[in-house]
């Protein structure tokens, strides 16, 4: 993906993510009830590996770290990626640098290696099974 497209995509997704977090922080509760933007859950009735991440991030903001982990452990990494990428892209754009883009290319190349991608896929599958288990019980 070209640098300009990547930075536009990260900017758009960051604005949407921050907006969604603000909406969920002030206008919904984290009881698991309410609207969902997860197309997988809407179609199948089962949670996806990321389901619960928004509620988890909201709980992190409230200082409820254990509850955040219970919603979805990906909440921590999702929040870190959101904050880091949005600040990094903003920095690169304002200083006309390309550090984030070079990092993206490096990570993209590393993810093509089996010894890297297989453990990541296994982690996603474990968290997905945990989400399904929580939804059933």
Structure notes:
This protein has 137 residues and is mainly alpha-helical. The chain has one domain (3-30, 43-136). It is 77% helix and 0% strand. It contains seven helices and no strands. It has helices spanning 3-27, 39-44, 53-62, 65-71, 74-95, 99-110, 114-136. It is globular. InterPro entries: DUF2752. Pfam families: DUF2752.
Short description:
It holds the Pfam family DUF2752. This protein is mainly alpha-helical and 137 residues long. It is built from seven helices and no strands.
Task: Based on the model shown, name its key terms.
137 residues, mainly alpha, 7 helices, globular, DUF2752 domain-containing protein
Main beta sheet strand tally, sense and closure: none
State the order of secondary-structure elements, H for helix, E for strand.
HHHHHHH
**How many helix segments?**
7
Q: End-to-end distance, in Å?
A: 42 Å
Computed CA radius of gyration, to the nearest angstrom: 17 Å
Structural class: mainly alpha
Rounded mean pLDDT score: 90
Strand content bin: under 5%
**Number of individual domains:** 1
**What percent of the residues sit in helical stretches (DSSP H or I)?**
over 70%
Low-confidence segments, given as residue ranges, are: none
Q: How many runs of DSSP E, i.e. beta strands?
A: 0
